[in-house]
Amino acid sequence: MGLLVDGKWQDRWYDTDSTGGEFKRESARLRDWVVAPDAPLEGPQGQAAVPASADRFHLYVSLACPWAHRALIMRSLKGLKPLVGMSYTSPLMLEHGWSYLEEEGSSGDPINGVRYHHQLYTLTDPHYTGRVTVPALWDKQTGRIVNNESAELVRIFNDAFDSLTGNDLDFYPEDLRGEIDAINAEVYDKVNNGVYKTGFATRQEVYERHFTALFECLDSLERRLADSRYLAGEWLTEADIRLFTTLIRFDAVYFGHFKCNQRRIADYPNLSHYLRELYQWPGIAETCDLAHIKTHYYASQQTINPTAIVPVGPSLALDAPHDRERLPGQGIRRHA
Ligand SMILES: N[C@@H](CCC(=O)N[C@@H](CS)C(=O)NCC(=O)O)C(=O)O
């Protein structure tokens, strides 16, 4: 676990002393865009962009990581598997950070042949300074990471490749954007990143503050899902995918390892049936790997779990029937 400073790898755990016991997540730094083949080469905020094409991009992920998991789900649901290759790291993130060591459970890296994920960052920029994170979208043509921010990879995958795949599913419909953005902001702060802020806190009062915010938010999501099939109503959107990747890790990891133990997702009737519906959605279960998930957190984060023992349980009834059909739902919108 560490980071790059001027292109040199340094093995360091998160510094929470300088922030009063708080875990502060650093913003992703590689933020170029991928646009549709004939579109102007510019991202939605004027970012530099490269055109989508088949077999030009490769997605580097960890199957354990909830942020990478968003991108993996979009790759699956948007029919991108034949166009965008994928490599996954070993579940262990130790002194060299994420690795592509097959003997430790990685797929290996057939594109660049690197041992460590940080090498992809120094291939991109030999003087890179910052955290070395997954997911990362690699551009084989320019030999660099185009983008390492999962929220943006979700948006890129939502439309840039549509003319190549013929897949017009729309996870960010224009008329729902205001609502999706508001849900995302709350869920990111209190839930997606909230579990990390709770679990990585190194002061009691900081842990308790994030713990309280997390469960207030889960309680309110539980109420919302009592009469709404998905977070933004009748349509399944990116807001659901972003919540899903935290929910599926919750009972197996965050409840115990991150001490988020007020309630399990299994104790929330609506959230647990909603989790099952999404898990059973065609193309999603195949992106979920609970062995990678549990091994990564319990065996890598040894400041939290010094023995690195990985718990055997719990049994999760993800394939059990769900009751969400009682609510009106229309599935996934199509681009107009
Ligand atoms: N903003 C990034 C965050 C990604 C992130 O933090 N990934 C974690 C894995 S779950 C990581 O690679 N951490 C390594 C580190 O912080 O050194 C995104 O959403 O894409």
From TrEMBL:
Signal peptide: none
Enzyme class, broadest EC rank: oxidoreductase
SUPFAM superfamilies, per database record: GST C-terminal domain-like, Thioredoxin-like
A single MF term (Gene Ontology): oxidoreductase activity
GST C-terminal domain: residues covered: 173-297
Name listed for the protein in its UniProt record: Glutathione S-transferase family protein
InterPro entries the record matches: Glutathione-S-Trfase_C-like, Glutathione-S-Trfase_C_sf, Glutathione_S-Trfase, Glutathione_S-Trfase_N, GST_Omega-like_C, GST_Omega/GSH, Thioredoxin-like_sf
EC number: 1.8.5.-
Keywords: Oxidoreductase
